[in-house]
Design brief:
The chain contains six helices and seven strands, in the order E-H-E-H-E-H-E-E-E-H-H-E-H. The protein is α/β, with parallel strands linked by helices and 199 residues long. Strands 2-1-3-6-7 form a five-stranded parallel β-sheet, sandwiched between helices. Strands 4-5 form a two-stranded antiparallel ribbon.
């Protein structure tokens, strides 16, 4: 049994045509080659989605659940808490992340587990110490800061969410997928995945 666990998540609805899935798989392959004893836990959020958030669908550890909660949601939280490394395949859909990935995020932002509230505000960073690597695929090109500032709500959102729980995520980005740069963007992202530092 490896001393480290890697949680691999995919959220693209495009199956084998997905760029983010190809890049996330390459990231996992790179890390597993560097540590063959790595314990990899995989979840396909598109094929096996979590439901939209309701109090009853929250993890039992979430205050909204009243201590009951949903077993699959609790498993999603437990898997995240147990992971040393998290690899996320995240396509951008309509300027943000897929709803399937958002539903997973709703399960890991849990007061008392990954952040806390107190009288003077939120205590963040309870999940610090994990490594998060995001394989982000975007149809357009977001190199223009002015355009990105108003239209990019995937990378910016994920940076904020993971930062809120104490993690500074790493990104491997494939841009221009739908703007005539699919092959070049995929090639560049796969090259970056292959050069990723193992630790």
């Amino acid at each position: 049994m490896s001393s480290k666990t890697l949680l691999h998540l995919d959220s693209s609805i495009l199956g084998g045509h997905s760029v983010s899935r190809q890049v996330s798989a390459a990231i996992v392959a790179r890390l597993a080659a560097a540590d063959p004893s790595l314990n990899v836990v995989y979840r396909d959020l598109a094929a096996d989605p979590l439901p939209h958030a309701t109090p009853a669908s929250m993890p039992a550890d979430h205050p909204l659940s009243g201590g009951k909660g949903d077993a699959a949601s609790q498993q999603a939280l437990d898997d995240f808490l147990a992971a040393d490394i998290v690899v996320v395949g995240a396509p951008m859909y309509n300027f943000s992340i897929p709803t399937q990935l958002r539903a997973w995020i709703d399960r890991i932002l849990v007061p008392g587990k990954t952040f806390a509230y107190r009288a003077d505000g939120a205590v963040t960073g309870l999940a610090a110490g994990k490594r998060v690597i995001v394989a982000l695929a975007r149809g357009g090109n977001y190199a223009d800061p002015a355009f990105a500032a108003v239209a990019e709500h995937a990378e910016t959102y994920l940076r904020w969410v993971f930062g809120f729980v104490g993690i500074e995520p790493e990104f491997i980005v494939a841009d221009g997928i739908a703007a005539g740069r699919r092959e070049a963007a995929l090639e560049g992202a796969l090259r970056s995945a292959g050069e990723l530092k193992a630790a």
